[in-house]
Amino acid sequence: MAIIEARGLSRTFKSRGRTVEAVRGVDLTVTDGEIVGFLGPNGAGKTTTLRMLTTLLRPTAGTATVAGADLLKDPATVRRRIGYVAQAMGATQGGTDPNCLVREELGIQAELYRLDPAEAARRRELLIKQLELTGLDDRLVKTLSGGQRRRLDIALGLVHSPRLVFLDEPSTGLDPQSRSHLWDHIRGLRGELGTTVFLTTHYLEEADALCDRILVIDNGEIIATGAPEELKRRISGDVITLSVSGDPAAAGALLAVEPGVRESSVDGDSLRLTVEHGEEALPGMLRTLDSQGIRLQSIRLARPSLDDVFLTLTGRSLREDAPEPAQPVAAGH
Amino acid sequence: MAFFHDTLLIFKRQVRLSLRMPAWIIIGLVQPILYLAFFGPLLSNMTGHHLPGFPGGNSYQFFVPGLLIQLGLFGAAFVGFSIIADWRYGVIERFRVTPVTRLAILAGRVLRDVLTLLIQGIVLVLAGVAFGMRPPVTGVIIGLGFIAVCAVSLASISYTVGLLTKSEDILAPALNMVVVPLMLLSGIMLPMTLGPGWLQGIARATPFRYIIDAMREAFDRHYFNTIMVEGIAVAVGMAAVCLWLASRAFVRENA
Questions:
Q1: ipTM entry
Q2: Which residues of chain B neighbour A156 with C-beta distances below 8 Å?
Q3: Residue A16: pLDDT above 50?
Q4: Which residues of A touch B253 (CB under 8 A)?
C-alpha cells in the first residue's frame, strides 16, 4: 500500500526578479514500511520536496496523498500522522530550542500532538531509552553534544508514533561513530515498529547502508529510482581504469568495441571504461591490448558506487559538488 | 477549543523561557526608570509655570502614562527578534508540522508579552508613586488596560515583520524607523499642545497620541469624556488591525 503518492510536485521561488525552479514535476510513490532515500547534491531540491510533503510549503503545482490524506485539501490530517525532523544545518536548524530542558521539549511535543499525560510519559520514557538519551532529562539542550542533540531531534519527530517519518539529512554534521549508531536506530524504527522512513541525504554510504530504495534527484528532478544494488548494476557498471604507454585514446578506441563495454573516456593519462561484468571482460581486454602491441602500465577494477551512478546520470560527481544555495533564504522561502 | 489549549501551551513555554533568563525583563524597565529619575524632575518645574497642556497636579502624573507607552514601544515592539531566533533554531517549523493551531503560535507569545509589560508597568507606576505621584487606583487600572491592548498591537506587528523577513538586519532598522517618530509624536515627554500647528497636525495622525491623552485623563480622574472614548476606539481598532495582519502571516501555507 502506498503511504506517499505524489504526482507532478513542483515548487518555484521568486526572489528579486529571479525565478528559481527548485522542484520540477516530481513523481514518487513510497510503500508502507520502506526506507526510502532521496539522494542528491546540495541544492537538488531534496529539502524543498520534503517540506512540501510535510505541509510546510505549498506546492506551486502537483498533487500528493501522504499517509492517507490529501496534501492540499487536508493538510491538518497529514500533520497528525507524520513526523518530521529538519536538517541540523542550513537556513534553519534541527528544531530544538537550546534554552529548553530536554524533558520540556519532549513534553511540549507530546502536548502539541494531543497525547494524554499517561501516554506522553510512556512515550517519553521509551524514546529516551531507545535513542540513548538516558540521564539527560534535566539538561539544557545547548549542553548536549551534536550526536545527542540530533537524537533528541529525532525523538521529537517520533513522540506520537507516526506511521511515516521524514528525516532531512539525519546524520549531517555527526562524527562517523554517531552516524553509525544513528543508522542502527533508523533501521530499528522500521524493524521494530514498521515505521516508513523517508530520508534525504547527500552521503552515498548512508543511502547504500540504509535504504531499500533510492530516488536520485538533481536540479529539481528525479533522474533514477531503484534499490541501490539495482541502480549500480543498471546504470553504471564495473569501472576499469588503466594507463598505457602511448596514446590512451588509441587504446580507448580499440577497447571500446570489446563486448560488455558501455562507455569509455580519457582522463588525462588514464583510460576509464565502464564495463558490464568487469571481471569476465578483463582477460579479454588484456589479450586485445597485447595482440596489438600496446603496453599496459597499470590496470584497476572497481565495483560501482553510487557516486558512479550519479556520475553516469549527470556527468558530475556527487563528491565534487560544492554546496550551492538553490533556495532563497529570506521572504518567499 | 484547540486554539485556547494551544495558546496556553505556547504561553507557558514562553513564560518558562523568560523566567530562565529574567535579565531581559529587568533591562526593559531600565529605560523608563532612568527617564523617570533623571528627566522627571525637570518636568516638575514646568508645572509650576502653568504651561498649557499640563494638568494642574503632580508632573509625574503627566509623565508616567507617557513612560508606560514608551515601555510598550521599546519593549513590545522589539519582541520580533525572538521569533527570528526561534525560526533559526527550527522551532517554528517544528511546531508548524504538528497539529497545533498556527494562530496559537502567535497568540501564546503575545500573551506572554502582555503579561511582561503589565508587570513592568506596575513596577513603573510604583516608582512614580515613590517620586510623589498619587494616581487614582481606577485610573492606574485603566492605564494598564491601555498598555495591555497596545502590547497586543505592537507585539503582533513585531512578530509579523520578524516572521516575514526572518532577518534581524531588516527588522532592527524597520522598527527604529517606526518607533522613534511614534515616540516623538505621541507626546510622551512633553505635551504636543506646546508645539506649532503643523506639528500638532502630524501628531493627530499618530494613534498613540489619543491613547496617551486618554491615559492622562484616567490618571486625572476623568473617566467619561470624548478623549477617553477616542483613546479606547483607537487602541482597540489598532489592535484589531494588527492582529488581523499577524494572523495572515502566521496562518498562511508557506512558512
A1: 0.84
A2: 94
A3: yes
A4: 55, 57-58, 75
